[in-house]
Amino acid sequence: MEEICEVVFSQRNCGKLNAQGYLMVKDKRRGDEFYWRCEKKDLFCNGRAVTRLSSGHHVLVSFVEHNHSPSASRVSVLKAMEALKTQARDTANAPCQIIQACTTSAAAEIAPCLPSANALRCMIRRVRKCHQYVQPRTLAEVHVPEELQRTLDGDLAKDAVVSEDRILLFTTRTNVDALPHAAVWIMDGTFKTAPMAFYQTYTIHAPVGSRIFPLVYALMSGKSQALYKRLFEDLVDVAEEYELRLNPQVIMTDLELAAINAAKSEFQGVVNKVCFFHTAQCIWRKIQSSGLASHYSADERFSLKLRHLSALAFLPAGEIPAAFDELKLHMPEQASEVTEWFESTYVHGRIRRRSRAGAARSPPLFPPSMWPVYESMHEGYPRTQNSVEAWHRRWETVVGKAHMSVYRLVEEF
After folding, report:
1. Looking at residue 140, what DSSP letter applies?
2. Domain 4-70 belongs to what topology?
3. Closest CA to 220 of 194, 200, 190
4. pLDDT means over runs of 10, the chain (413 residues)
5. Nearest-CA neighbor of 219 among 174, 184, 278, 171?
6. According to the CATH classification, is domain 140-275 in 1.20.120?
7. pTM of the shown model
8. Where in the sequence of the chain do the CATH 3.30.420 domains occur?
9. Which ranges carry the FLYWCH-type domain (predicted)?
């Protein structure tokens, strides 16, 4: 007798096959045949199934056993969540009514497995908002509704057009109040969660008490210096509306010259610090592009010599040029390409011409005043952007998917 498998929908609206109590995600399709793999593949489960679509139903053709037991409650929970989302879409009932109906109609055995009431309310809000707005695919189609332009405190978002680019800036009065008192701003962008019409989600973080919080959010359609400059100008305008003056002492960024130069242009006297992790990462990438990765991994002495380059960051900035010159004398000949690149980019600058008086150099892209952590350690500034990177990972979890709708992302702000 043919076994018909049911398709249920996850919280992210992905269809999953219920085959003998196991939930499986679609791997591929060939004609009327569907190939499925266990949703726990990341946990090394090789369970698979093949179904044939017949009269709108999935008929099980073959089944490979899993390395774990099935979960009947998991399927029931997904069905309950789908019923909740259907009510949210099709009715105007209050969230508390929908949640009450969902929890009372669910079997007693799965009640402990349901998300919390707060999580269910958030789910209802997301479902309704996503169905309320037409999702834009181009910048010209982005028109943030009035209710999404204001925070819970009534603060209005900034919308700026720069040539063919665009910035949507979001912050609050409370957050702006904290910026003038912060000794250091940490700025970084993430690309994975940026909406389809935008290039990146850019955030400005600063310490509040003993912790670092995101205080400014911006959706940016590019990463040019002009666009960053407009972002900072708009942020200054917002602060001036609240009679606040923004003049950060230190700004920490990754190795992005457009953001660095724009910050220097807008905030006179600001000191820019580059994240130590990004500096070390750039050195490693240069080692790889120079074809030295295998040698670096196999030869500990060679590896140690190259690691001395990033270790220069623990010296005072004024001592780095002389220390590098001494270090260069002892660097392996095979690493000359890496050494010369580091010298021109981070220490002495690129040689423009040579004469009897010596070599004339242009300033380095990232001078020694920018990337050492010696001063940061003594002045209590962060050495890296690790706290911001950790926030990005949590943010991706909260958002739940890459390149989501611009209006859904604004809701999360």
Report:
1. G
2. N-terminal domain of TfIIb (2.20.25)
3. 200
4. 77 74 85 87 84 85 84 77 80 79 76 80 79 68 69 61 78 87 86 79 86 87 88 88 86 86 88 84 89 87 89 88 89 88 86 66 82 76 73 72 69 66
5. 171
6. no
7. 0.61
8. 140-275
9. 8-68
